Amino acid sequence: MNRPDIRKLFRDGLWDQNVVTTQLLALCPTMAVTTSGTNGLGMGLATTAVLTVTNILLSAIRHLVPDQVRIPIFIVVIATVVTLVDMSLNAWLHELHKVLGLFIALIVVNCAILGRAEAFASKNGVVASAFDGLAMGLGFTLSLTVMGLMRELIGSGTLFAQASLLLGPAFSFLEITVIPQYGGVLMMILPPGGFLVLGFLLVAKRKLDARLARRNAPSQTENACCTV
Amino acid sequence: MQLALLRERIPYQAGTLAACLLITSAALVFSNQLTAPAIERAARADLQSSLTQVLPEGMVDNDMLRDARQILTENGASVTVYRGSKAGQYAAAVFESSAIGYAGEIRVLIGVDAGGTVMGVRVLKHAETPGLGDKIEIAKAGWIRGFEHKSLQNLAPERWAVKKDGGIFDQFAGATITPHAVVKAVKLGLDFYAAHANEIAGE
C-alpha cells in the first residue's frame, strides 16, 4: 500500500471535493440545521466523528465484503455507529446530547457518509480512509458553519448564538450580537434562506476556482469545467 | 486469490451480510445494556428539573418523581400526574397537556396548587416557526409567565383566549395560532385537573 498523500486528502476534503459546495451531497441536513453558526458547527463536528469511524471500519473489512451486498453492509455499519454514538453521548455527556441529539439522528440520512464509504473507504487503506473521513468531515463542518453564520447574521443579527451550550462556557466569547434590537429576516432562517445562501456560496466558490485556474492556467486543466 | 473466488458465491455473500448483522446487533445490545441505567438517570434528572421549574421554590418538599399517579381521562388516555406535598400535606400537582399549534403538537408542562391555580407553565416540545412562534419558550420571552396565578375561578372561560379573540393573553406579531394553541393547552389542562381533583388529591 502506498503512503497516502495526506495533503491532497485535506485539499480535496476542505476545498476541491468539498461535500456541500462541490459534491452537493448531504443537502438535507445542510438545509435543516444551518439556521445558526452554532448548529452548523455542531452538526459538522458530529458528522466528522462518525465519518472518520465508519471510514476506518469499512476500509478494514473491504476485502471481506462482496460487491453484491456491500450497500446493505455499509448502511448497517453506519446506522450502528450512529446509534452507538447517540447512546453513549446520551448516557455520559447528557448536556452535550441535549444540544447535539437532534443532529446525531440526522447523520444516518447523510448520504455523504455512504458516499465516502462507496467512493473511498471501499477502495483504499485504513490510514488513508481515516484521513479522508477527517478531511471530508472538516470540509463539511466548514461549509455548514459558514452557511449557518451567514443565515444567522442576516436572519437574527447574531453570530454563534448559544455557542457556550455546545462548546462549554469557555467559548462564550464567540457569541456576538452584531445588530442589537434587530427585527430579523425570517426568510433566512426558514428553508428558502438555506437555498439562497447555498446558491451564493456555490457562485462564489466557482468564481474563485475559475480565477485560480486562470492564474495558473496550463497546470490546472481539471478546473476547466468550472469556468463560467 | 481464494477470497476473490469465494466472494462471487451466493452463500458467502449471504453469510457475510448475516455475520455483519449479527455483530452489529450484538454491539447494539451490549451498548444498550451498558448505557441504559445512565440514560434513565439523566432522563429522571431532566424531568426533576422541569418539575421544579413549574412550581415556586419551597412549595413542596417531597420527591415528586416517586409520587406519580396515572389518571384516566374521559377519552381513555392516561395522564401521569406528579403530586407534590409539603410536610405530608398534598400541596401541588404537575402534569402535561398539549394542543395542536401551527406546526404540529405543542406539549406543555403545567404546575398547579391544590386549588387548581396555575403556578407555572413551560413548553416541553414544539416545532413552531423560529423567530415568530418560539416566543412561547421561556428562553426566548417571558410570555409563558402570563399564566401564573390564573385559574378557572379567577378568569372566566371566555377570557381564556388571546386578545384578538376577546381573551386576556397577548398574541405575537405574525403568530396568533401558536399562542392560541398554548392557551388552549393550559385551559384543557386546568379542565382536566378540575374534573379529577379528588382522584389526584385523595389518599
From TrEMBL, chain A:
EC numbers for this chain: 7.-.-.-
A GO biological-process term: electron transport chain
Name of a matching Pfam family: Rnf-Nqr
Keyword Cell inner membrane (UniProt): yes
Cellular compartment(s): Cell inner membrane; Endomembrane system
InterPro entries membership: NqrDE/RnfAE (IPR003667), RnfE (IPR010968)
Membrane topology per record: Multi-pass membrane protein
Transmembrane spans: 41-65, 71-93, 100-120, 126-147, 159-179, 185-204
Recorded GO CC terms: endomembrane system; plasma membrane
Signal peptide limits: none
Main location group: membrane
Keyword line: Cell inner membrane, Cell membrane, Electron transport, Membrane, Translocase, Transmembrane, Transmembrane helix, Transport
Highest taxon listed in the record's lineage: Bacteria
Record text on subunit structure and interactions: The complex is composed of six subunits: RnfA, RnfB, RnfC, RnfD, RnfE and RnfG.
Family: Belongs to the NqrDE/RnfAE family.
NCBIfam families, alphabetized: PRK12405.1, rnfE
Its job: Part of a membrane-bound complex that couples electron transfer with translocation of ions across the membrane.
Record protein name field: Ion-translocating oxidoreductase complex subunit E
TrEMBL record, chain B:
GO molecular function: electron transfer activity; FMN binding
GO cellular component: plasma membrane
InterPro entries: FMN-bd (IPR007329), Ion_transpt_RnfG/RsxG (IPR010209)
Keywords: Cell inner membrane, Cell membrane, Electron transport, Flavoprotein, FMN, Membrane, Phosphoprotein, Translocase, Transmembrane, Transmembrane helix, Transport
Domain of life: Bacteria
Cofactor needs: FMN
Principal location class: membrane
E.C. designation(s): 7.-.-.-
Compartment(s) of residence: Cell inner membrane
Keyword Cell membrane: yes
Keyword Cell inner membrane among record annotations: yes
HAMAP family reported in the protein's UniProt record: RsxG_RnfG (MF_00479)
Protein name stated in the entry: Ion-translocating oxidoreductase complex subunit G
The encoding gene: rnfG
